[in-house]
DNA sequence: CCTGTCGGTAAGAAACCCTGATCGATTCAT
DNA sequence: ATGAATCGATCAGGGTTTCTTACCGACAGG
């Protein structure tokens, strides 16, 4: 029912009008004159009405004059779309939705995102933060394309690229009896008031696991946790990156027996592919946080 | 530089998404499945980025999801244009600019335009009126597509289709000495106070030409002319159609010696072709005002 | 394990679009 | 006038695009 208008013949019509003839148009279109003639005639009989007068010169019919601005409009919209998609593909435009665990979001991302938007000034980034499970769920559900987190359980539908290892240590106030140590073994912590937090599960399955059953509190909120530590109510364990260095009275002492680490990495969907902007972000993150390592599956 | 997006592959993408698969889409597009697959792949490599995930099912990539509404938008605009142009061609939409001499405009056009818009309810008409020279100039200059007028001088660049002959007669007040006659010869008018008007040139070149030199007035405005006639100041000659029948005191007496007629017809540009709407009007006018005559060159 | 459905691939056929040569008409200069 | 130049139209042909037919491998459900 509806005739399919192809873009190119419409361009020919515009060219004929503003070049003032079929020959001149053909020249500027890098086509031969018959190509232009035939394309126009094809278009005319598809519309069922001539666009140019038959006699001699290239003059628009009234119908042609009616069509002209509309052709121009459709071509403009086509070109706008084409340009826009190309910009997306070439990472000169676009948007990345991502998520990270709080320690990464607050300690690594500010610098990283600053560098990123310096490298890709046209791209936009949205960052959410939440615990590892939250990040995993956002990535798995497609609500964000990338997550930076530690991986608890294996998931075939998600792809995890390790970026860095983050050692767990003990955090206490500077006047605590352990505060002067360079390193600790788990036995030294026995009998201490241990405050559990969201990262304490890292100790599960290690020699230090017995400590967890002794812990009196379980505080997931970081502000509350630091408040309790500063108040000298107890001690806790945290990965190095999660240790809030802005509190002068808190000390971080590495745990060496057992050595416990979390592995931070980039999480993405295993089946869904990435938008061009997210591809740029993925490569940028890997390059930034894993210096001297090539990307690989 | 810019890739040319053809409309059809975009349609394929939409169909794949809302049919939920390549096979189903191919069915509803009346194509085979490989045709759809290949068209999509062609589009993908033209964009430089896949639209659908590779593995198994037909799932959009994030880039594909980004493209989808934009494809839909471009297709919508294409179809809107296509539909609109088709409506123009099929005379289901459009606009006719035309002009007519005052007698035609006031006596024939109201009825004719009423019938026309009843026949073509979607079309719109603009009508200007003015003397024959004015009408001719509008048509020649392309400001209107059609004129209904009498033709003074031949003009190769204009096409004139005769519609009706309009006999000239004498107009006088009902108490005038000639008012009772059924017909008149020019000699009977000698010695009368003759008022010239815009149509008096019709008498030039006829036996009645001597009357013109006797005329005391030359009044082009119709209101003024009728006022003078009603006041009994003189008589005039007018074509039948230009005789203002709404004035009860005025009489029209046919001039039979010589028989003078003007030929009213449809005027259009000889080189410029007509818009579809104007074509409809042209045919309608010819059919309405020249009953029982087929259209000719 | 077989079977139906999915999408991808290969080869040939049809349609499409372009080129090169040529034509008739018009215009312009001689 | 008449010949040259330029205009757009036309036609045969070949190269590309885009379809169809036939077949493949992957996967899911009975």
UniProtKB/TrEMBL annotation, chains A, B:
One GO cellular component term: cytosol
Superkingdom to which the source organism belongs: Bacteria
The keyword DNA-binding appears for this protein: yes
A Pfam family matched in the record: HTH_1
Ranges where the HTH lysR-type domain occurs: 5-61
Keywords: DNA-binding, Transcription, Transcription regulation
UniProt xrefs under InterPro entries: HTH-type_LysR_regulators, LysR_HTH_N, LysR_subst-bd, WH-like_DNA-bd_sf, WH_DNA-bd_sf
A single GO molecular function term of this UniProt record: DNA binding
UniProt xrefs under SUPFAM superfamilies: Periplasmic binding protein-like II, Winged helix' DNA-binding domain
Keyword Ligase found: no
Family in the record: Belongs to the LysR transcriptional regulatory family.
Name by which UniProt lists this protein: LysR family transcriptional regulator
Organism for this UniProt entry: Halomonas nitroreducens
